Amino acid sequence: MIEPEKTIKISIITVAFNSASTIRDTFDSVLSQTFPNIEYIVVDGASTDNTLNIIKAYEPKFDGRMRWISEPDKGLYDAMNKGIQMSTGDIIGFLNSDDIYPFPHIITGIVECFKDNIDVQAVYGDVKFMSVNNPDKIVRYIRAKNFRPIRFRFGFMPPHPSFFTYRKYYDELGMFRLNYQIAADYELLCRFLYKNNLKSKYLSVEIVRMRMGGKSTASLKSNYILNKEIVTACKENGIYTNMFILGFKYFIKIFELILLK
Asked: Residue 126: CB partners within 8 Å, gap ≥ 6?
């Protein structure tokens, strides 16, 4: 898809809302990246804490590579869609406002993977979950090596923060659907990788380090909503599943935690 000699631009999108306690780490990890042609887009949802002041303080450090807006939105996925619409890069990736790239060469590795595999349309890799207060303490490691599109029916997907694809596919296949509360990223990946069969490649590296927590793991009610939306997402994209089948993923997650210890 990309000619080897072409100068590639990567658009990294961070969505923020009242993220003052963590967003500096996110910004520093993007600034640390060795790949030079990064467009960094920050979409703030009209934060009421110190987030906006931090964004303004960091903007000069990006030497014109950061673009940002701060305005009310309809939630996380609406903000992500705004970021896509603002982007001008060849390839898009998302980095949450409480997550980091753990090493300076992450984006360089992503670009090299696309260049070395010109038929590949999407790239994903591993993520680690870190303690909220201690980024060096790993509490869960998601290895995406064994992912296959058929595993969507069991509730598995490539970790969305590790997922990079060409911007044109958001134009051709659609962006995040706002009728989902929690699982719009799941639905999008089902649509891209299963229904439309984008050719993807697994990159065997830790791409993103995430803090524990988040909307989908906040409560039993959130998990119920998540699973219900996963069933809907699968149905909309031609994948058969049900709540009973999705139950198997929790046994696998417990097994992963035991291995990590």
From this structure: 141, 142, 143, 144, 145, 159, 162, 204, 205, 206, 207
Q: Which domains does the chain have, with CATH numbers?
A: 10-260 (3.90.550.10)
In order of 93, 115, 124, 131, 197, the CA distances from 135 in angstroms are 21, 31, 22, 6, 35
DSSP 197-255: ---EEEEEEEEEEEES--GGGS-HHHHHHHHHHHHHHHHHTT----HHHHTHHHHHHHH
Structure tokens at 18: 């009242």
The CA-based diameter of the chain, rounded to the nearest angstrom, is: 51
Beta-carbon count within 10 A of 112 CB: 15
Q: Distance between CA 10 and CA 166 in Å, rounded?
A: 9
Tens of pLDDT, residue by residue over 131-179, are 887 778 888 888 899 899 999 999 999 999 999 999 999 999 999 999 9
Q: What is residue 126's three-state secondary structure?
A: strand
Which residues share a beta bridge with 202? Answer: 124
**Assigned token pair, 24:** 């500096």
